[in-house]
Amino acid sequence: MTNNLNSLEKTLNYSFKNKSYLTKALTHSSKSKDNNERLEYLGDAVINLAVSEHLIKNFSDLDEGSLSILRAKLVSRDTLSSLASNIELESYLIMGKSLSNQENKKSSIFGNAFEAIIGAIYLDENFDKAATVVMYFLEEEIRSLTINQIKDKKTLLQEELQQRKINLPVYKLKDASKGMFKVFCEVEELNLSSEADGKNKKDAEQKAAAVLLKKIINSDE
Length: 221
Description:
Blueprint: H1 2-12, H2 19-25, H3 37-58, H4 64-74, H5 77-86, H6 103-124, H7 127-143, H8 147-151, H9 153-163, E1 170-177, E2 180-187, E3 192-198, H10 201-218
């Protein structure tokens, strides 16, 4: 196990002072009562704060809605599970035999373990070091996004639904009076909808798409 942990630490670009934190972060509840669930809880909060701080400092022209959507995508279960898969975290996990062949559950387990590792780094050193590791792994994800992509909520929503092989949303103009437009947006397959007001129809559609996209991404967490 020591050799394995040394290899993982090199991948993480972080060496634990207290190796027991890393061992616990890799231990699933199916294996032991002394598992990574509490570290996962802590790591989730650390990742959210680290990403929020980075976005605030580096995307000064984005409004709160755009920042929230971008953060939700960056810290989503799919993103974290993908990061865990990229560093072959599965080979380090300590799991009970009951989960060894349950492929449908492994993806979320990997993402949870990545969160637990970040929580472990926070306890082993401090927030700044944990945040540095978070941003090291999310750097490519952030770099791949352009400002225009972030601002165009309708396109982001469409891309998200296409990835999930779900029909595109339906937009309906509900009201257009007193210089204000109200739009209803629905994704029937997910039983999710939203409403938003805007200065024109296009503005209202963008805002409704933003609300619905946030609901969809948050439902994965």
